[in-house]
Amino acid sequence: MFTIERLTKTYADGTRALSDVSIALEAGEILGVVGGSGCGKTTLLRLVAGLDRATGGRIAVDGETIEGPHPAVGIVFQEPRLLPWLSVADNVGFGLVDRPRAERLERVADALARVGLADYGARWPRELSGGQQQRVAIARAFVTSPKVLLLDEPFSALDAFTRASLHEHLLSLWEAGRQTIVIVTHDVEEAVTLADRVVVMRPCPGRVYETISVHAERPRDRLGVGFDKAKRRVLNALDRSLRAPDVERDRAAAQGDALWW
Amino acid sequence: MNAPSTSPLTDVVDAAPPQAPRSRVHAPGRWLIGLALPLALALGWELAVRFGLAQGRLMPPPSRIFAALTALARSGELTTHIIATLMRVLAGFALGAVAGTLMGALAGASELSRRIFDPTLQALRAVPSIAWVPLFLLWLGIFEASKVALIAVGVFFPVYLGVAGAIEGIDRKLLEVGRVFRLSQAGMVRRVMLPAVLPEWLIALRSGLGLGFMFVVAAEFMGASEGLGYLLVDGQQIGKPDQILAAIITFAVLGKICDAVLVAATRPLVRWQDTARSSL
Ligand SMILES: Nc1ncnc2c1ncn2[C@@H]1O[C@H](COP(=O)(O)OP(=O)(O)OP(=O)(O)O)[C@@H](O)[C@H]1O
Ligand SMILES: [Mg+2]
């Protein structure tokens, strides 16, 4: 159980990045977070990862309050952020140095295999493509088996094909460990492909606007009726969230407008 | 640091990009190209003097310089001078590099100490280093100590600036990776900060070494009875340009060798770098 209660973040310059955000996730649930630019998605993940301090509210994993970087929480950033002086395998094993060598090697090999990079352990990060580097970053976050895994637009720099194959890799890792996953994305289809629930956020200050459940079997059929319906609902909520506060009045006219986020 | 172990895969990978193996194959060729210009100039001058087109009294031809060099070498003098100079450079370099690294690390790691030390150091840096000579002579006497001190001052500043700048320039994003994995302060320094500043530190050491060779000449000008700088002054006083040129050539070779040794010794540490520095 992973809970965020009344989380508020006001930056030093007075920017109200988050206000009163509450989310509760069951273990093993995948949550998608979408919303316009600047609505506090990255802020939310950084608070949960313990990289920034919240102004108010509480984050807890299995009842334990999180106040800084915590072994139960892992994060994949928007950029791979691999350490260029470590080989791919050593990057993946970065969080495992206190484990016995044999265990470390085994877990690193397993994680690399799951992201399809079993033969790449000896390479330098610079010898990988962007998508391969991002896969290494995902393996690095998974390999310490955190209970909660945060991903901040991890695939936004990749083309649609690479992205689809990374979705498979991500789900295969998730099936092995059933972590709770929070994935921020700009891509509604990606959110609906991966998530059990999609949270739509709205800006100024950032807060939860609407939560949409996606009821569909995995692997999901993009052409299926359920998929399409969920996607429409998310798009619709997103559209409305961006034109708030005149939401109700404009709701009828909202259809068909270009989304600028 | 764990370098990737060699496996069949690495071999395949390394063969393709312009990494070590290929450049090793081409290394002799590159050497020859670099030598072409000086050799041509030397040969041209030699021929010009041989055929009476030029006098060669103030600018002796290569054969005379070479003769002076071999004479110095045969009498064992050259070795004495080289060792004297080398010892001074190494001692000064060691002092300056250690002090520069420590001060640079302090200034880079703590804002407060940077505010305290940096203005003073910057002001001292603005002093032409040769201006210290009289003071060092008064304080440390005319023997080795004052010479080593002068060289150390020359080495200190580039190392200090390089290290402080490198630490300030460490990517915050990589530090956050360390934080996410809950590295201790020591772990952060050892596993993230040190490797991150290593390349720039090595560059700073190289420029420090280069300045060390510059300053050893100044130091030996201020009164030495041996050393390559002494050979220069002596050559001027007894009017032997071939000796001066022999000393200059020895300086060039010695400086290049020291630089190459430094680079070769540290290359394994920065093999991971994604830069086009193979020719440096
Ligand atoms: N360090 C900071 N100091 C002050 N304000 C900040 C800081 N970081 C973010 N903000 C502000 O907080 C708000 C939320 O930013 P955040 O990065 O969380 O948005 P986001 O939802 O991730 O946007 P995007 O989708 O564009 O990545 C923005 O208005 C931003 O300007
Ligand atoms: Mg963001």
UniProtKB/TrEMBL annotation, chain A:
TM regions (residue ranges): none
Classification via SMART domains: AAA
Gene Ontology MF terms in the entry: ATP binding
SUPFAM superfamilies: P-loop containing nucleoside triphosphate hydrolases
Keyword terms: ATP-binding, Nucleotide-binding, Transport
Keyword ATP-binding applies: yes
Record flagged with keyword Cell membrane: no
Domain ABC transporter: 2-228
Top-level lineage group: Bacteria
InterPro entries in UniProt: AAA+_ATPase, ABC_transporter-like_ATP-bd, ABC_transporter-like_CS, ABC_transporter_ATP-bind, P-loop_NTPase
PROSITE patterns hit by this protein: ABC_TRANSPORTER_1 (PS00211), ABC_TRANSPORTER_2 (PS50893)
Family: Belongs to the ABC transporter superfamily.
Identification of the protein by name: ABC transporter ATP-binding protein
Organism (species): Alsobacter ponti
Taxonomic lineage from the root: Bacteria, Pseudomonadati, Pseudomonadota, Alphaproteobacteria, Hyphomicrobiales
Automatic annotation (TrEMBL), chain B:
Subcellular location: Cell membrane
All copies of domain ABC transmembrane type-1, residue ranges: 82-262
Source species, domain of life: Bacteria
Region Disordered, annotated ranges: 1-23
UniProt xrefs under InterPro entries: MetI-like, MetI-like_sf
UniProt entry keywords in alphabetical sequence: Cell membrane, Membrane, Transmembrane, Transmembrane helix, Transport
Lipid bilayer topology: Multi-pass membrane protein
Coiled coil: none
Principal cellular location given in the protein's record: membrane
One Pfam family, short name: BPD_transp_1
Record protein name field: ABC transporter permease
